[in-house]
Amino acid sequence: MDEMTYCSFNGGEEYKNHFEPGIYVCSECGHELFSSKSKFEHSSPWPAFSETIHEDSVSKQPEAWGPIKVCCGKCGNGLGHEFLYDGPKEGLSRF
């Protein structure tokens, strides 16, 4: 399995259309975030995942405008947002 760094936000996301087996890790500290098993196609310009690989993979902070801000659970690196009920199946989120 490959290990892919996730969320460096520098001019486009190289893993949006990448569906090879592997683990997505924080680009800052290498903490495991998502498995390719939870990745799905979405119209967003960023990779989309339905769940984290570990319970402590990310930390979450509610934002006033709706989605939940998501950061690396180890170093606090900003990863984007969790959009509730926007996953590939009913009731799942999109990270």
TrEMBL record:
Pfam family, one: SelR
Domain called MsrB: residue spans: 1-95
Location relative to the cell: Cytoplasm, Cytoskeleton; Nucleus
Any one GO biological process: innate immune response
The name this protein goes by in its record: PREDICTED: methionine-R-sulfoxide reductase B1-A-like
Reactions that this protein is recorded to catalyse: L-methionyl-[protein] + [thioredoxin]-disulfide + H2O = L-methionyl-(R)-S-oxide-[protein] + [thioredoxin]-dithiol; [thioredoxin]-disulfide + L-methionine + H2O = L-methionine (R)-S-oxide + [thioredoxin]-dithiol
Main location, first listed in the record: cytoplasm
Superkingdom: Eukaryota
MF-aspect GO terms: L-methionine-(R)-S-oxide reductase activity; metal ion binding; peptide-methionine (R)-S-oxide reductase activity
The protein's required cofactors: Zn(2+)
Protein family (similarity comment): Belongs to the MsrB Met sulfoxide reductase family.
Protein role: Methionine-sulfoxide reductase that specifically reduces methionine (R)-sulfoxide back to methionine. While in many cases, methionine oxidation is the result of random oxidation following oxidative stress, methionine oxidation is also a post-translational modification that takes place on specific residue. Acts as a regulator of actin assembly by reducing methionine (R)-sulfoxide mediated by MICALs (MICAL1, MICAL2 or MICAL3) on actin, thereby promoting filament repolymerization. Plays a role in innate immunity by reducing oxidized actin, leading to actin repolymerization in macrophages.
GO cellular component: cytoskeleton; nucleus
